[in-house]
User: Fold DUF2975 domain-containing protein from Youngiibacter fragilis 232.1.
Amino acid sequence: MKRFAIPILRFGFILGAGIVLLICATVLPELAEFYAEIAPEWAYLRYPLLLAIYSTLIPFMAAVFFAMKLTFIIQRSDEFSNNAVFCLKAIRVCAFVLVAMYFTGTAIMARLVDISPPIGLLVLMIILASIMVGSFAGILEELLRKVIGYKEEIELTV
Assistant:
């Protein structure tokens, strides 16, 4: 099971990150230009919005990196180590940084312009997904800390 699951997980991480990078490199600039032509009164927000969206790539790619690192740790059969706890903590922090960035960006945008419902729904979905990922990583982190504590306790008694 582990022999096939780890490469599939890695492929999924690489594919997801690649698709996000491809969308950011090709689709987003064209969308920004299109909306700047349609609504010239909002054209001044074109580059600040692109910069804000591109800045959210940093914690996203960091989370993907730590998830990949976690798969290497699992493949080495070193799951119950502090390195795995560190990776889970980093994923949790990245997820909540994404939540803060999108929440702040949406609040600023709501002050400047009227946010359309589809865009608001998309941002809400991103925020909720990040909260779920961060919460799950935090739960796994605490469980792993307890398991490591039990493991050390058993090693000391033997």
